[in-house]
Amino acid sequence: MARLTVLHDDPGPSYATSAPMVLVIAEGADAAAEGVAALELAGCQVRRLVPFADAAADISNYDGLDLILVEAAGAADSLLDLVLARADTLARERSLGIVVTVRPDQIDAAAAQMLGPHAQILCDPTRVERIAAIAGARHHARGVMDDVNRETESVRLRRLNEEVARIAETLARLTRSEEIEPRAGVRDRTNGYRGPDDGPAIEIHAAEIRSVIRSRRMRAQFFADELFADPAWDMLLDLFAAQLERRQVSVSSLCIAAAVPPTTALRWIGTLHEAGLFERQADPADRRRAYIGLSPKGLEGMRNYVGAVKRAGLQLV
Fold it and tell me: Where is the HTH marR-type domain (predicted)?
């Protein structure tokens, strides 16, 4: 089990430290063990370990925080909703980062509360994925970039460079036994999308898009999945087909359509959401469910692309 170091509520003058302080919300030390181990490897310190019942009552009295880690396994559904809502509010008010780890059946509940640039949702993550998420979340925390009123720009840049180098070294060491999934960004679509070519309007049917999705999935019968992993495009196709069918898609369903591990799919959903291609749609009948759809920008891009391919007499892939 990972060593759990919890600082006293009133640390006094010795509290000053460059290590980011983390509030861990979990149902006991065992449930928090993997998260705490990842925090230690990422150079963070646990400010306090709080059970869900206490976090549901109030977490606003914890000061000096840089990051919130929520280990959702074992949490009651009713408490999970309330805790995530409180953590989301606290993070927005104090500019904190949040990392939430969930089981597959908790994806929709977490996404309904926390799909945004300040939060990272992981599903049954590896230790490498945990550390990568913590490292990313730290850059949303006020303590990582240092207080601009106390340090010069050169000092802050030096500290940031040292931190990036240290995280890279930790990840390199861990990947000797764990494989890191390749990460890629989403291109700026300002110059990527083009309007429809001159010519008659092209009719697009959902069945055409579904057939493309089926043919892409058939590749897994003959080749290793990772050779053709393209979660962004798989999700765009699935949401475009759903739009044509006038059907809503839950976050958990979209993760399945991505054909990659859930944590990878969730990361891509967040990336495409930030890129303005996806939008979250609330379910008025169930506040614990969030739907994902194409934004007007994303829908326009898909219509124009598919139309251009069909006008050129090419096959959509």
Answer: 245-298
Q: Using one digit for the tens of pLDDT, what is the confidence trace for 270-285? A: 889 989 999 998 888 8
Residue pLDDT, tens place only, 35-79: 999 999 988 999 999 999 999 998 988 888 999 999 998 899 889
- Asked if residue 244 has pLDDT above 50, the reply is yes
Question: Which pLDDT does position 213 carry in this prediction?
Answer: 94
Please, what sign has the CA dihedral across residues 213, 279, 231, 89?
negative
Decide if 73 contacts 216 (C-beta within 8 A): no
- Range list for CATH 3.40.50.2300 in the chain: 12-174
Query: 159-198: per-residue pLDDT in tens?
Result: 555 555 555 555 555 555 544 444 443 444 444 545 445 5
Distant-in-sequence, close-in-space partners of 6: CB < 8 Å, separation ≥ 6: 46, 47, 48, 49
CATH annotation of 206-311: 1.10.10.10
Q: Are 297 and 276 in contact (CB under 8 A)?
A: yes
CB 227 within 8 A of CB 220: no
* First-last CA distance in the chain: 47
Pick 12-174's CATH classification: 3.10.350.10, 3.40.50.2300, 3.30.720.200, 2.40.50.320: 3.40.50.2300
C-beta separation of 86 from 94 below 8 A: no
Rg (CA), the chain: 22
Burial status of residue 278 (CB atoms within 10 A of its CB: 0-12, 13-18, 19 or more): buried
Work out the number of other CB atoms within 10 angstroms of the CB of residue 10.
Answer: 6
Alpha carbons within 13 A on the beta-carbon side of 38: 26
Q: Which regions of the chain carry the CATH code 1.10.10.10? A: 206-311
Length of the chain: 317
